[in-house]
Amino acid sequence: MNFLRRGSIHLFRLKGIDLYLHWSWFLLAIVAVVYREGSFSSIGWNMLDYAALFAIVTMHEYGHALACRQVGGTPDQIVLWPLGGVAYVNPPQRPGATLWSIAAGPLVNVALAPILLGLWYAGTLLGWATLAPDVFDFIKNVNEINLVLLLFNMLPIFPLDGGQILRSLLWFAVGRARSLQWAVWIGFVGAAGLILVAILARSAWIALISAFILMNCWTGLRHAQILARIAKLPRHVGYACPSCHSAPPVGRFWVCGLCHQPFDIFATQAICPNCSARFSTTRCLDCGVLRPVSEWLAEAPALART
């Protein structure tokens, strides 16, 4: 998903989280506004209707990011693009923390639902359909947007929220690597079903979403295979990741930033054996978090003295 970061415009920073807008959003906005011309009495309402879509998506993604921070993770940024939004978050690699970080997004839509439905019901009672048809139609559309986003995101198809929630629940039972493998294969089946729907409905939009899901499932499968291999490796005794508490694997899996040679940072007391460079931080191969090497020390006082 790095292509989203490269082609994005920074909008603002809220709660320490940067919000970006991908340039392709403007193309879709033009198409959507023109395509729906006639839905309201003026094009301004069409623009407001489209803006409401991404306002809801933004709140949804902030739900992910703030929940990630709540469980001790690192929320990086949010990027809005034509297929919705992407929250770049790194929760602690525990099933409960991951589950909450993912579930918080749809819960935002759940919280919005009674408010929006209440406005629509009030408008019905007050006769807004006749007195202020644009306002009434706008509220109705926002309701539909929120409900459709909620229902679609809860489909158990990886990498949609429903698929990632399923993966987190499986994690409790079958472990990190296998849960991702199972969720990814379910995602492949779901993507195949969406492709069939796209063909039958002749929908380019559903086809794009299917391609996005397939791309992420393929990436997820490769990641699951790496996790499975890492899980089988022997581990260093006396060290533990400060974030996920897993012991580092034995082997030359770290690369020196100076001579670019692989080495085992825990076997050499954080010193590259090729160029003698000393490292104060290292990245966990299990959770990906970068922390000071000294914090990994559990029962090895020799490393603490370096």
Report on this model:
The protein contains ten helices and eight strands. It has 306 residues and is of the alpha+beta class. The chain folds into three domains: 1-154, no CATH class; 157-232; 254-304, no CATH class. The strands form three sheets. A four-stranded mixed sheet has the order 1-2-3-4. A two-stranded antiparallel sheet has the order 5-6.
Provide a quick synopsis of the model.
By secondary structure, the protein is α+β, with helices and mostly antiparallel strands.
What is the overall shape?
elongated
As a percent range, the share of strand residues is 5-15%
Listing every helix as H and every strand as E from the N terminus to the C terminus, the arrangement reads HEEHHEEHHHHHHEEEEH
* Major sheet summary line: 4 strands, mixed
Query: Number of domains in the coordinates?
Result: 3
N- to C-terminal distance: 38 Å
How many strand units?
A: 8
What level of helicity do the residues show? 55-70%
